[in-house]
Amino acid sequence: MSLTVLMNAGPWLSVPPPGYGGIENVIATLVPELRRLGVRIVFASVGTSTLPVDEMFSVFPDGQFHALQRPYNQVCGISQAHLNGVVRELHARDDIDLVHDHVEAVGLATLTAMGPDAPPALHTLHWDLAKHPELYGNVDGGDRVRVNGVSASQLARAPRALQEHSVGHVHLSTPLAVGADRRPAAAKGDYAVVLGRINPGKGQDLGARVAQRVGVPLVLAGPVGPYHRPEDLAAAGEEARQNPDVRFFLEKVAPHVDGHLVRWVGTVAGQERDDLVAGARATLFPLRWEEPGGTAVVESLALGTPVVSTARGCLPELIDHGRTGLLTTDEEELGDLLLAASLIDEGDCRREAAARFTPALMAQRYVALYEQVRQLATAPRLQPV
Q1: Hey, what CATH topology would domain 3-173+358-378 get?
Q2: What sequence ranges are listed for the domain Glycosyltransferase subfamily 4-like N-terminal (predicted)?
Q3: Percent of the chain residues past pLDDT 70, beyond the cut
Q4: Is there a cis peptide before residue 16, judged by omega within 30 degrees of 0?
Q5: For the domain 176-356, what is the CATH code?
Q6: N or C, fewer C-beta in 10 Å, the chain?
């Protein structure tokens, strides 16, 4: 395949990220498989990114995620500066066949504003589409800019303008799914784990209360705002409360963290994360929002650990209730389902991941979307009769 794609990862974290990094991990999983298919990648990221690509450029030497807790007037130029660099790069060269953008809101706004002479673009929607209603409700990329979701349920809730620009959805994947059906069973502990950034939508406070009610030890693994370790948050002082995720943790979650039945261990990554998840009786997703993608869900399946969750967002698309996990529409049932999770066959979880959620499958789907976007951008318009 002769195709050059400008992959826009944004200014927030290096790729691969050093710990937690949802979108950055998606990109780190996708790009190697695209290159195996012959796609040439020009990478827009930060200077500390180490992902092997064909070319890379950056505006910032390092990730700017730490700045997100600052007041808006101190932060609002970061994404714009990065996108300005992307536009300059596109103006300076004529070999980019397509832009694949992953930067929330400003990426889509910039690409649609570039006009018909810019390359075709695919903007992947990784987040809650109820945000930014003035942008998403009025977006107009013409025939050149298209969007895709990371689940069908995400797109079903999108404003009409986004749906009209959609070329479908691509489920997320994990390298852990490769050969997962051949991976030996792990020794299981009695604990459950909640993975992900700690915030109200992820429902860690609900998870802690559920665990305490049924007596199942619970490990909360993920950052609180910009703080990846408990000791970092403890040393941050009162200023940290400016971050809404920090306030949520301190007011709603921390009162349940006793260090015994409920523990917060901060960000875990690599083998430490894999061992933690593989040894759990279940991965708990006590969601209060419509989860759009669910990377941690497919990682859990690949590691042979069933999922217990509220049936929100993409979860019913990813989990076969009764076979690879247990879902409920009633938060009060989560405790009973957590106790019943040991009845799920971990081999079924691993086989499901190997069949549906490998990086190769995700890359093949994106290559098909790239061709679709390019064809839509160049197809002659039908003239009105």
Answers
A1: Rossmann fold (3.40.50)
A2: 20-130
A3: 97
A4: yes
A5: 3.40.50.2000
A6: C
